[in-house]
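Internal tracking record. Fields below are filled automatically when a chain is submitted to the structure queue. Please do not edit lines marked as system-generated. If the sequence contains nonstandard residues, flag them in the REMARKS field before resubmitting.
Queue: standard
Priority: normal
Entity type: single polypeptide chain
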Amino acid sequence: METVDKAPAPAAKSPRGFPRGAATIGIIILISSISLLSSGCSNLRSFTLQGNVQLDTESGGPTTKGIRDDKFSLARTQSFGFFNDISNDNWKILQNMVAQHWNHKFPERPLTHHPTWRGAGQSGQLHIPAWYQTNFEPNFSCQFEKRIGATGEVSRGNGDGPKWICDPHRIKRLAAERKAQDPNHPGCVVYSIGSAGDFSFEKGMEEELGPGTCEYHIFDMGDFEEKMKLQNISRAHFHRWGLDTQGEENTQPSAEFYGLKDTVKLLGHEHLDVIDVFKIDCEKCEWRIYRDWLLSGLPSLQQIQVEIHSGNIGKMHQAEKHDHDISPEIPFFEFLEEAGYVRFHKEPNIQYNDGSCEEYAFLKLDKEFFAARKKILAERNITRVDI
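SYSTEM-GENERATED OUTPUT FOLLOWS
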């Protein structure tokens, strides 16, 4: 009887049409991958943000090169992890908003309405409120921004004292992630320069984020420490000194003023990557010290809430010899934008003056976020005629 070699029977297939052996291998690989991720889930943010974020050799800060891609990657990496749930499509809309934004109503003469300039084409409205009405509107939107102030009788979130914070729930999330990664990390850090004995903002932040979430450092020249203690703000520290320009290092005790670098060193914060909220109301000192906010070696200021003051500031600004402008406002805003800050809120102070003082809120983003804006500004090619 003739023997016929039979072909081997085909391997049994899984319901999806793959050979069962291959399916088994795939399941083993999947389970191994899940186990690997599970074993390091507490460091997952470190893996996705720190492990893949490289340092920019120019700025010393993070860059988004080489980041893994997913539908939230743009927002997450270009905000240094602050936004983790904004889709790439929606993030591109925000990028385009910033790219298309005009900082001035009169781009060639942005000092129009400013009382320090009386050149050709100047309007009859020579006052600071008119100038702010025509320059530097917000160019970014935080979906869940909130005006933070104590909900008690002090302010109930209204009046002078509370500040606009970009999406405070994100600060709470980041604080929890940092603490999970390092139990010794303060979680969230707030610097509050200038209080005049009003602690409604700090109290409101604790009500919003929960006791113990943030460490609060409050600076003022007045003796308000006992008043601060009455607010029962956990982890709040009062420092009776003012902020001034950073000169030679000075960390000797009992000085009346310190530079920001000295302050950070005195508080032992040199190791921090970020100060979550930097709120400052120092009655015009902002014009002298704003460049120090971004000195190398300092923690990054994630949000800046600053009240900008007007008045007889021309001579003071000229003495600094930082800029060619005859007023400090335009160099101030351009400096922060060049450093990667967007403006998400603007509010005139009309309770105690005519609107000559403005409350601004800034958020730090990666410089790659501004690539489209730089291109559009180059295409506009505006030449100023008022300087």
